[in-house]
Amino acid sequence: MTKLIIYGAAGYTGRMVCANAKAHGLDFVIAGRVKDQGRLELLAAELGAEYRLFTADDRAAAHAAMDGIGVLVNCAGPFMHTAEPLMRACLAAGVHYLGIAAEMDSYRLAETLDAEARAKGIMLLPGCGGSVAMLGSLAGHAAKRVAGPIRLSIALHVTGGFSRGSAVSASENVTAQTLHRIDGALVGRNADEVRAFDFGKGPAMAFPVTLPDLITIWHSTGIPNIETFVYVAEGAFPEGDLAQMPDGPTLEQREANRYHAAVEVTGRDGTVVRSLLDTVNGYTFTTIAAAEAARRVIGGEARPGFQTPATLFGNGFAETIADTRIVDQ
């Protein structure tokens, strides 16, 4: 089956994914909660698409909504509420699962469900955009520049503000412990251990965070020691009452705020290499990448089990999105 369903289509990011799916000429339906029916009706009319209503944790309704569907893209955060029921619904219905989660739990869940998904021939790709696609490509590129990579430090430069949905997800998913990967295992670390990264305009101090890339980069490269950092530009992180935030950055704000990432990889012989990624704003990148990933999966590029963009599409995936480029330092 080659039909796509986009769940969470009424949200800020979901609407952008729908617009990109339409631009690709994909055969898709949109979906979301009953409370979003009004917005879904308007969006469906605008897109010329069918819409379906169901709550992610209503197993029977979710299964019924998968009728005739081959691929699902989950855009409905916080993903701590939607990823598990939708992954399980996809496994039951024989539908490939794609998501845009920035939350660790979705990736741990995909690891847990990997064997079942492989047995059923279903793919779980919980992150097909965002840092997982950006940093996965950058890490894979740099890792190939050394013999036997053993250590990787990577940082994302976030700028231009958050959507209201992303801010709510982030507030609900603050981890009690900051993690890094040491000798293949996830262990706690001091959250105050900041370090400098050069994103192309001189050193900037980034702080350690628990990103899902601790799972996905290890999964795609096998590097045993990985640490992840974020540098948030002044004014980008939301403050105050999140409910009063605008839906998300405007087109003008997105165009004015590109994302960057920096990586440092150490080889077995002590060689150290550094590479940089320059790309469009994170929301623009993620919504283009999600639609492109869906197009390719519908076209037959799928592998059973837990996958990342790098394991599925290769290290060059990010550079196929908009005008993303990776350069070596």
Q: What's a concise summary of this model?
A:
The chain is α/β, with parallel strands linked by helices. It has helices at 12-23, 37-47, 59-65, 79-93, 104-112, 114-120, 130-143, 164-172, 213-221, 251-256, 282-298, 309-313; strands spanning 4-7, 28-32, 51-53, 71-74, 96-99, 123-125, 149-158, 179-182, 185-188, 195-198, 203-208, 225-232, 259-267, 272-279, 305-306, 325-328.
SSE blueprint:
Elements: E1 4-7, H1 12-23, E2 28-32, H2 37-47, E3 51-53, H3 59-65, E4 71-74, H4 79-93, E5 96-99, H5 104-112, H6 114-120, E6 123-125, H7 130-143, E7 149-158, H8 164-172, E8 179-182, E9 185-188, E10 195-198, E11 203-208, H9 213-221, E12 225-232, H10 251-256, E13 259-267, E14 272-279, H11 282-298, E15 305-306, H12 309-313, E16 325-328
Helix pairs in contact: 1-11, 4-5, 7-9
Helix and strand succession?
Answer: EHEHEHEHEHHEHEHEEEEHEHEEHEHE
CATH architectural name of the largest domain: 2-Layer Sandwich
Q: How many DSSP helices?
A: 12
Mean pLDDT: 93
Strand fraction equals 15-25%
The biggest beta sheet is recorded as: 7 strands, parallel
> What is the 3D form?
globular
Describe the structure in your own words.
The mean pLDDT is 93. The strands form three sheets. Strands 3-2-1-4-5-6-15 form a seven-stranded parallel β-sheet, with helices on both faces. The protein has a seven-stranded mixed β-sheet with strand order 10-11-12-7-13-14-16. It folds into two domains: 4-129 and 286-313, 3-Layer(aba) Sandwich (Rossmann fold); 131-281 and 317-328, Dihydrodipicolinate Reductase, domain 2. The radius of gyration is 19 Å and the shape is globular. It has 329 residues and is of the alpha/beta class. It contains twelve helices and 16 strands. The longest helix is centred in the last third of the chain and has 17 residues, at 282-298. 37% of the residues lie in helices and 25% in strands. The chain starts with a strand and ends with a strand.
